[in-house]
Amino acid sequence: MDDLRRADHDSAAEADADADVSSVDPAILAGIVAKGPQPVLRYLFFLIVVRPVMLVIMGMNVRGQERLAERGPMLVVANHNSHLDTFALMTLFPMNELHRVRPVAAADYFLRTRWFAWFSIRVLGIIPIDRDVRRGRGHPLDPISEQLNQGAIVLLFPEGTRGEPEQREPFQRGIAHLARRHPDVPIVPVFMYGLGKALPRGEGLLVPFFIDAYVGERLQWTGNKDTMMERLDTEFQRLADGARVPETF
Questions:
Q1: 151 phi and psi, to 5 degrees?
Q2: Start and end of every Phospholipid/glycerol acyltransferase domain (predicted)?
Q3: What is the DSSP code (8-state) at residue 68?
């Protein structure tokens, strides 16, 4: 049960401690979730809004993009400091593969209101994870496995919550559970710098700042959860050590 609880917690990309309990009528919420992402809405939102903001206004630089496969299944794991992180990761992939890209997110946070749930499911295309195993709705990693089995590119934040700007919290072990379930699926670490200062937690106004995304070497299941986590941590530290930090900060 302890492993299950950890996996449940680890898989949530937005584990805000003060997340609200959903106020959405269960029947309405089930209908939104059942419909899933709306391809045209997603395409237009990312083409007209997200990509111009991330690539032109924020000027995001990407290093090592060739290490990303253009097709799934694939697990992309990143550090997490800002709501911009999901948009930044989704911008790494070409528009014609957007329909395959699915960020993991905590259901109790992203489905807490009707309209936020609609946007999160239909436009962002999140994989909502129920973090409360006591509700008995199956293993929290099952929805992620289902998407990987269908060839999705799954985005996951192993820290489990947004941390302080430019400070990386220890990774939770849910990623190792997923790697064991899908030993042939590549895991691609991405270290992101600057997003936590461009849109810190609790802020709603963008601040111009240097934004970089460093794509690391692909990893795969090592056969052991401890060594898996060690390799992931080592690769992230290598990327962080090589990150370009502005001299003025």
A1: 90, 20
A2: 74-195
A3: S
